[in-house]
Structures are given as structure tokens and as C-alpha cells.
Amino acid sequence: MSLGVLISLAAYFILMLGIGVYAYKNATGNSEEYILGGRNLPPAVAALSAGASDMSGWLLLGLPGALYASGLVEAWIGIGLFIGALVNWIVVAPRLREQTERYDNSLTIPAFLANRFPSQGGTLRMVSAVIIVVFFAVYTASGLVAGGKLFQSAFDGSYQVGIWLTLGVVLAYTVVGGFLAVSLTDFCQGLIMMLALIIMPAIVLYAGEGGGFGQARETLSGIEGFTLGWWTSDMTFIGFISLLAWGLGYFGQPHIIVRFMAVKSVAAVSTARNIGMAWMGIALIGAIGVGIFGRAYVERNGVSIEDSETIFIYLAENLFPGLVTGFLLAALLAAIMSTVSSQLLVSSSSLAEDFYKLVLNKNASETTLVTVGRIAVVAVGIVAALIAGDPESQVLGLVSNAWAGFGAAFGPLMILSLTWPRMNGAGAVAGLVVGAVTVGVWIFTPLKAATGLYEMIPGFALSWLAIYAVSLATADQGEFRSAQASPAE
């Protein structure tokens, strides 16, 4: 490893730890500060924190790897995600910011659901907390897999050591600084990721002799199984819909929508949305460029890459000087750590607020809850590291499963709880359970292989139907009248 790489990575780690110390001194005095940063995030911080915690190592490993292997047709995932994120900012963000504060200052998604539907409050908190912890353990594992691959590919080190080093750094600033540390580090990491995704595609496209768009098209057009078109002859309608359906997942991702709860005001949401969507557009275009132009560069130079998800790492090491390589690898670490830290914090918040306080110690003090939250961060992180232990794990595969689980379980639930007053607690429980179970059944039975349908689609549809049908079939417990009496959105 060159001195330049070491300097860049050392500077990155010092920055992250410094932010953790700053946040510890300024926003960890009580549960609201540790879990939501005191609901005082500036729009830019909220926007980039949501984006960085969303994209993860998937943005720099999974998506470029899929495009590298198959071609531009995989970009439909990114298009679906962009549309879903935009609708999420418009429909969910302002309503969730207002209603979570109005309903007894809810600090977590399970707490909001319990306060919104008091007839099933205990059940909703317990069931949603279990779903959050289980799926986040898998989701967090995908980030640690990315960290292991980075350490193995870039530094010729041990995959297992890479997992534990990644987790160790994330735990250091998350345990210490809580939500404010996670959000501020996300902001910095989002800027680093965006710069990397502007620099790399531009350099790779023109690297070496005969570069440029014309050369890239000529090189790629001769690769069997690779397409530069938006549609392939063997692509079915179900396959197309399954790619776009990734966008449905946004409405139910706790680590993303919790940023909506923390922005400093409802009025600031529109500013945050504009910043966040601009960032996301640049990042997705850059990731697509890395995959497509990276494949052209590799083919032109006769290089063989065993794992397509390491194309970003290969290009960073072979096309840039030490300091820039270190910066690009820091961008990859930023993508990984921003999501892992957010997921660990949301998981620990649910364990502390929705399990420990609800079941074990109803009179827990603020200091005790913050301590329990910190312990839970470490515990969930260790479980995720054990799940990530298989070096053959694929980042995109783990992300797709967890993304579908959250999207189906919480997506319809969040949309309808915020927009449909007639929804009741029984419907909420039904939607939560049906969505999660459907995704599990689709993954672990032959249904997915037989239909080719992404598990998000049946899970989301059946969850929505369950909420609607059960809410209308059961008597409301005053929740309908309470929602009607609430201020207009």
C-alpha cells in the first residue's frame, strides 16, 4: 500500500472519529438527542444523510457490478429507485415529520405506529421491532461484506479481518456520538461519494489510447451477453417490473425515513428533498458510468476480473495516483459505513425504546436508555458480522432481500397510516405481518425461481390489501376519529 493511500485513509478515519467526539459532546444527553439528534437537522445534512445511508456499498459495488456483468439494462434498478425516492420525499417526508412529533413525540417508527394506533400499540411495537432487528441484521451484513471485499481486493488482506475492521470503525463513532454523529458523518461521506462518482467515470472513459464514447461502444458491442440497449430479447415484462419495483422499497426503509423525522421543520423538507434528489441523480449516473465504462476499459486492456462487484476497486488502484486512490477507497468506505451506522442505530433504538423500555424496564431513565442503546448497537453489529462471514456472499443479493423485507412490511403501512384516516390498528398489524411473511415465503420457497418476480411486488401488494381489507372489516377503536380530528397535512 502506497504512502498516499495511507495518508488519505488515515485522514478519513480521523475525520469520522472526530465527528463522533463532537456529537458526543453536543447531542447525546437524552433519548431524543441520541436517537434523533434533537429533531434539528439542517436540510442539507438531512438530505445527504438520507442519501448516503440509503445507497451504501451497493452504489459503488453492487450496481456497477451488475452493469459491468450485464449492461445498461440493469440501470432500470436505478431509475426505479430514483422515482421511488422522489415520491417518498413528496408523500411521506412532510407528513411523517409532522405526525411523529404530534403523536406523543415518537422517536422511532414502532413508537409512532403504537401512538397512531393505540388499540394495537404493544403488538405493533413488538412485531415491528422484531422485523427491524432481523432484516437490519441481514442488511448490515451486506455492508460488512462490502468492507470485507474492499480489504481483500484492495489491500490483499483477509476478508474476515476486513469485516471486523469495518465494524470496529463504525461502532467507534456510532456508539459514542449517536444520531448526530451518524448524520454528520453521512453528510461528509455523501460529499465524498459524489465527488468519487464524478471523477472516476470521466477518467475511466478516456483512460489509455483510443478512449471515448465511440471506442467504448465499439468495444462493448462485441461482448456476448452484454447489452448497451435498455431492453434485451430475453427480458420479460416480469423481469422489467421487478427491476423498477425496487423503488417501492423506499416507503418502508426505517434508516431512511427516520431522517424525515429529524429534519428541523416541516417547512425545511422541500429544501432537503431538492438537495437529496440532485445528489441521488448525480450518484446514480456516476455509478452507471463506472460499470459501463469500467467494462470497456477492462476489455480493451485484456484484464480478467473474477468478481464484477470489485470493478470500482480495480479501477481505483490501477488508474489513479496514491492520494487519489486513497480518496476513492475512502469513498467506498464512506458508502459502506454510512449505511451500516444508520442501520445499527435504528436497530438499537428499537431494541432500547420498543423492547427494553416496553417489556423489561418501563421506568427506565434517559441515561439508562442511552446506555442500552449503545449496548444494542454493538450486539446487532456482532450478529451482522457473523452473517457476513461467507466470502462468497453477494452485496446485491443481501441488499435485495432486506430491501424487499422492509419495503413490503413497512411501505404500505407507512403510506396508509399517514394518508388514510380510516386505517386502524388491526389493519396495521395485518399489513406488517403479511408483508414480512410474504417476502420470506417468496425467498425461501420455489416461488421466486418459478415466477421470476421480485419478492417486493407480491409482498407490497398483499400487505396493502391486508391493511385495506382488515381495517374495513373491523371496528375502529377511536383511531379513525382521532385521525379525522388531527390538523390537515
From TrEMBL:
Q: Where are the transmembrane segments?
A: 6-24, 75-93, 126-151, 163-184, 191-208, 228-251, 278-298, 318-346, 367-389, 395-418, 425-444, 456-475
Identify the keywords attached in UniProt to this record, alphabetized.
Amino-acid transport, Cell inner membrane, Cell membrane, Ion transport, Membrane, Sodium, Sodium transport, Symport, Transmembrane, Transmembrane helix, Transport
Q: Which gene encodes it?
A: putP
Official protein name in the record? Sodium/proline symporter
Enumerate the PANTHER family for this protein: SODIUM/PROLINE SYMPORTER-RELATED, SODIUM_PROLINE SYMPORTER
NCBIfam families xref list: Na_Pro_sym, sss
Matching entries from InterPro entries are given as: Na/Glc_symporter_sf, Na/Pro_symporter, Na/solute_symporter, Na/solute_symporter_CS, Sodium:Solute_Symporter
Q: Which GO terms describe its biological process?
A: proline transport
Topology of this chain in the membrane? Multi-pass membrane protein
Keyword Membrane set for record: yes
Q: Name one GO cellular component term.
A: plasma membrane
Keyword Repeat assigned to the entry: answer is no
Q: Where in the cell is it found?
A: Cell inner membrane; Cell membrane
MF terms (GO), sorted A to Z: L-proline transmembrane transporter activity; proline:sodium symporter activity; sodium ion binding
Q: Which reaction does it catalyse?
A: L-proline(in) + Na(+)(in) = L-proline(out) + Na(+)(out)
Describe the task this protein carries out.
Catalyzes the sodium-dependent uptake of extracellular L-proline.
The record, for Pfam families, names: SSF (PF00474)
* Family under the similarity heading: Belongs to the sodium:solute symporter (SSF) (TC 2.A.21) family.
